[in-house]
Write a structure and sequence with these properties.
The protein is mainly alpha-helical. The protein has one domain (about 5-115, about 125-285). The chain is built from 13 helices and no strands. It is globular, with a radius of gyration of 20 Å.
Length: about 290
Amino acid sequence: MPAPAGAHVAWLLLAVILHVCAQVARGVAWRGVLATAWPHVTRRRVCAWYVCGAGLSGLLSARGGDAVRAALGKRELERATWPALAGTLAAEASFESAFGLAFTLLAVWLGIGTVHAPSPPLLAAAVVAGSVAAVLVSRSRLVRRVAREAGRGLAVLRRPRCWSCQVLPFQVLSRSLRLGSAACFLLAFGLPVTPAIVLAGALALGAGAGMPVPGAGPATAGAALLVALPLAAGHPLDHGAVASLAIVWPTVLTLVGVTLSLVLLAVVSGARTPRALLRAARSLRTQPVPIVP
């Protein structure tokens, strides 16, 4: 059954389902991080926060989506602070960073891209920045307090067994589901599915999500797909199919994500009207209230 832009509905639907399931798996992983400091927080609640934030990343950028889910958590987690929540985000993203580096090295090995060592000025700047940060931490009471709170959010990294049982398996599952989603999107447009092409598609979509400019993610992902897929294939691909995929893939995920985010925000906040939903969105800066076990 054909879908818009010549895609096949069954593969397109499966791709979206796998993508959403991947977000839920990331939400479960984040719950494993949060549970170290807030043991009574439930998986259902954290998954709702995560999917709500992730669904808005196409409009707000990935960092904007992180801010949304952190704000949702701050409203309900007892004595939650922004540095502590930032620590949980960093802990939860540590696997993605390592996996992203592995993906990049694999892409270079497959001939999809290149990698260069950091320049000496950049390394020198990093050393200077680290030294300044160390001095600030040792002499500033405020900075020490912030560092202590961030350490509370990073506590799961000091518990390898907890990390390996409650966080890592769901991170691996999430990444596997995203690769499966990428393969289904390719199949939906009749494009070849090889490890190199699937990897290139996943990296291209990630490049769009990493754009710090709100609203620029889908366009960036589409442009990256146009370049990355033929390069990964090593031979010309159907230009019309690639162009259609470059438009539909990020657009569909953005529309589905925004819709899910609005629905979840309404459920979490109890909003029943558009005006109440708008008030709920504006209330994300309110003080946190204790979470009910």
